[in-house]
Amino acid sequence: MRRRAGIGGLQNAAAARDQYRLLGENVARLRTDLMKEQLSTFRSQLEDFARKHKNDIRKNPAFRSQFHEMCAKVGVDPLASNKGFWAELLGIGDFYYELGVQIVDVCLATRPHNGGLINLEELCKLLSQRRKGAREVVSEDDCLRAIGKLKVLGSGFEVITVGKRKLVRSVPTELKKDHNEILELSQAQGFVTGEEVERRLSWSTGRATDALETLLDEGLAMIDEGHRDGKRRYWFPCVSSVSSFVASETI
Amino acid sequence: MQTLGDHKFPHFFNYPPYFTLQPVRETQEKQIQLWKELILDYCRMQKIFVINVEEVFLLFSNPAIERSLNHEARVAFLSALVSDGRAEWTDKSHRQCLILWHRIKDWADIILRFVKENGLEESVMTVEEIRSGIESRGTEIHGMERMVLMRALKVLENKGKLAIFKGSSTDDEGVKFSV
Fold it and tell me: Which end of chain B is less congested by CB atoms within 10 angstroms, N or C?
């Protein structure tokens, strides 16, 4: 558009802006309509796919995981309710519900040992032991989804990331940042000493002691005074593979 | 699992903190429960009836992780067994503990069954014969700790199933069964 000087020019510019805006809205609306149509096509194709591959989805954890991702992209949640098309077609609502119950059991059984914090890998290992003979294999992804559902029920379950690991928390107490840092530090050897915490994290003795004692009280740490160097060690069952050892005596 | 001799140990045995008596109550309770079971199992398998707290006891150390239970921990675990009725202190100073992986009354039942199975209902035997004679070979009675055997025999005596008497030599007592 040609620029014009003066009031007329300003009015023209405003009109031009309006027109552009309207055009933009139209384009947006067209795009949305198109997208909706594409989405609806995609959804029905997804349903066809699910029907055809029902068995694979049930039996193969990797396949199941990818299927979930596809669903998520299209805004479909097969686990949203136990009723409805998806649940009936795949019957996997029950699978996750059952898994959720077993996860709760395992967490309760190991709580006296690890204070209510268990690493995801261990949880899966214990679940597999429990489910020996079950048709469906359980993956970490399955566990995470089941826990996600548990969260929705408000059961106090949460997955937290500490360093390289994912830990499943089944007690209401939240970890403060200081505690998290100690847990991360402990991943190297499964334990820390007070001195190590002070040195590596540059904390005062008081701060280190407070955090360690809290972790001890919460049942997340155990003390070890048997090393010949005489230093007290704080071990964290949730970062080592011991939960499964101990729990297998009780499960 | 680790083995010490023939015994297979549970995995907590390889986790160093379990060798330190835990200060936090809930954690300690779990620890005590695990050790109680282990002590009973181990003593049953190895046919150990007596633990002397201050002496070396294989179960209380794990050389692979360089940890041993200190005195306080040992006493704590054994005391827990005593509270459960699965052990008894033989002295007030708690230096020696009798481990009852079978309770005394269960031992009494075992002896009664042994008597019936071997046709000894009216017989007379010395205590030593009971615990090391041919008949007892292959049974749990063989090699029984004398203290425990006497206790079980006394239970049976109270039920009128036998009579204990002193033999001609002061070393051994005898038993007349009347089952």
Answer: N
Q: Per-residue pLDDT tens for A188-197?
A: 999 999 999 9
**Fold of domain A177-250:** Arc Repressor Mutant, subunit A (1.10.10)
Instruction: Give dist(CA A37, CA A40) in Å, integer.
Output: 5
Q: Shortest CB distance from A222 goes to which of B14, B22, B68?
A: B22
Secondary structure percentages of chain B, helix, strand, coil, to 5: 45, 20, 35
Burial class (CB in 10 A: 0-12, 13-18, 19+), B18: buried
Q: Is A164 helix (H, G, I), strand (E, B) or coil?
A: coil
Give A114 to chain B, closest Cα distance, Å: 9
Q: B129-171, pLDDT tens digit by residue?
A: 999 988 888 899 999 999 899 999 999 999 999 999 886 666 6
For A84-171, CATH gives 1.10.10.10
pTM of the model: 0.70
ipTM score assigned to the predicted complex: 0.83
Closest CA to A236 of A197, A198, A200, A204: A197
Is A84-171's fold the same as A177-250's?
yes
Q: CB of A213 within 8 Å of any CB in chain B?
A: no
Asked whether A198 and A206 are in contact (CB, 8 A), the reply is no
